[in-house]
Amino acid sequence: MEITRKSAAEIDKMRIAGRIVAEVLALVEESLAPGISTADVDRLAERHIRGAGGVPSFLGYLGGRRYDMSHPHAYKATTCVSIDHEIVHGIPGNREIKRGQVVSVDVGVIYDGWNGDGARSFICGGREAGTPEALGLLDATRLALMAGIAAAQAGALVGDIGAAVEAVGQEGGYGIVRGYGGHGIGQAMHEDPSVLNFANDYPDARVRLEPGMCLAIEPMFMTGGEKTRTLKDGWTVVTADRSLAAHFEHTITIHPEGPEILTKV
Ligand code: MF3
Ligand code: CO
After folding, report:
1. What's the gap in Å between 228 CA and the centre of ligand 1?
2. pLDDT tens for residues 38-91?
3. Is the pTM of this model over 0.90?
4. Which domains does the chain have, with CATH numbers?
5. With the C-alpha atoms ordered 185, 5, 7, 254, is the resulting torsion angle positive or negative?
6. Distance between CA atoms of 96 and 52, rounded to whole angstroms?
């Protein structure tokens, strides 16, 4: 395990990457009217990122620090757009989004070599178009992200973040995605430590948080059981029982006084 602490100048760059991420998510929220396609969402994200001087970090991504746009297994879009029972890693295409659907949008940006990563779930057509079940799920997942961030204090353990997220999920009776979670972030999108969304005893969970560490925290909750599967496209992760899923993610850094959200406008 190699965990780096970032300098103030490096965090300045991650703050810019994070601001671009937040701008994209705000733009998506405004644009998410019924009939828009998932490819439209991806195009407006890519245009905004490049216009702001960033590079989409998901394009050509193969895992770790490997990128190769020509590789058959590489991710070929700027965003992940996951609808209803899709949890994460939905691939944009010519699918139309319908009023009331739960739409989870994940986006990563590299600015001058430094990464920002964020995600939000929306209701297509706005909150008034959402069912009470969908709105409850979104609110609980967002609340869990905030609880995870609040737990990310210098001197606490990485595992405290997962425990805080898990407590919110259990309180609401939601399923918690166990196979995917947050991560360290910096010059690579995915760095050590792994930040799981539940209390656990793995070595990464025992890492003590220190100023300068940067993490992506990203709870994923579902209204049904916890079983997930991956579609034949090799990417899209769905709930096995087709229950609804939501995903909220922020990139944060740790200061002596507390956590700072980097993915904000
Ligand atoms: N942003 C996702 C995460 O939060 C990773 C997306 S995988 C990619 O860790 F292939 F789409 F890039
Ligand atoms: Co992430």
Report:
1. 17
2. 999 999 999 999 999 999 999 999 988 899 999 999 999 999 999 999 999 999
3. yes
4. 8-261 (3.90.230.10)
5. positive
6. 27
